[in-house]
Fold this sequence. Notes:
Elements: H1 8-25, H2 29-32, H3 34-54, H4 56-64, H5 69-96, H6 101-121, H7 128-149, H8 160-210, H9 236-245, H10 250-278, H11 285-310, H12 318-339, H13 342-370, H14 373-400, H15 405-427
Amino acid sequence: MGERSPGPPRRAAASVGRGLRRVFHADGADSSGLAPLSYVTVANFACDAILAVALANTLFFSAATAESRGKVALYLLVTVAPFALVAPVIGPALDRLRGGRRLTVSLTFTLRAVLAVILALNFDSWLLYPLALGMLVLSKTFGVVKASITPHVLPAALDLVRTNSRLTMLGHIGGSLVAGALAGAVSWVWGSDGALWLLATIALVAAYVAMTIPAHAEASPEEESATLRMGSGQSLTSGLRAVLTRPLGRQVLADLWAVSMVRFMTGFLTLYLAFVAKAQENATAAEQAGILAIAGVAGGLGTFAGNAVGSRLPLGRPGRITTTAAGAALSAAVVAAFLGTIWAAAVLALIAAACSALGKVALDASIQTDIPDSARSSAFGRSETALQLAWVSGGALGVLLPPDFVVGFSVIAVVGALLFTQSLLTARGSTLVPGFGGNRPRFPGAPRDPRAPGARPLGRMEE
């Protein structure tokens, strides 16, 4: 008797597997090392989505009801602390970690798997907040380390900007959408514990795949630092100022201010709309979920559209793109403040998400153009940290403001206007805030123009 041919389900699965492999290995990604980085990037998005599903009815929504100041304070701590830890710790650590970035990525997943198992076994205990905090810290750590690895694994057919867009789109589709939907189904059948076991499984697989990233992804001996190491005479303020200033040139810093403004808005909307939904006392649970669904779908479509446009848009003048994106998001916030409706909020979420994705693509292009090759890897890590801080700052404001559309959107319109003005002034050699922006050269290491507005003698911080 001859061998039996595989049935239709098996053939379909094999066909899907081959198709996915072609997507992840296209354009020379298999030989450059981009393919394994793509896999772990999708896994990181998946872990974040699964964690959100697992905690949807506990950590997030219990805080969103604002039943007690204690719960809101704990939620704010869990939201803000990862970024507060990542900013001053991970950037300098990368400068010292010259040969262990692959191991660091692997450890972020291994530790997340361990924490997920512990949380699954102690889901209703006081361990919920610290364990969730730990997983968020590890997720943000991965984002910074990935930004420093990516320049080392570029295929010849892709530049860094297109590569980052590709990683983001793969992450949103394969991680946020597919894994999020799968986690929702698992949570429906087996509860939040089942989703956490799924998270642990994906994280362990990603930890193994991370170690298959080729050795050339590590920092080279001649690679320069893009951080300012804090000496004994430097204050915490000086160190935080270095996150947004050193060693980025004037145009890159202006672009970073513009994109940070949009990230601030997206962070605000993510948390604020949940608080508004839960504050609707006369609305049913389905209506509250509908408010979140409208905003979520709008944000998802905007992110996808922004990355899709950015991957095809000519990027010869990234500063013009970041300014246009920030201006569009700010205009949408002003209109939403006047209208004060859920549909205005949905349009704002759509525009802000699209502008955030498009602005990030342009910012990457600006860094690739203006930052020297030897410092570019670390510069990407530092810019990513600054953007994450902007996102969580907006999210923190969304927790604190009253759940009223007019009030909330008016506040972010004012804050956005200040950040947008700072971006414009930085591009012209001036600043609203002393020490952030001001008279700097376009390219790091170039002499500053003593005739530019706000010129001052070269200080120790800028030598």
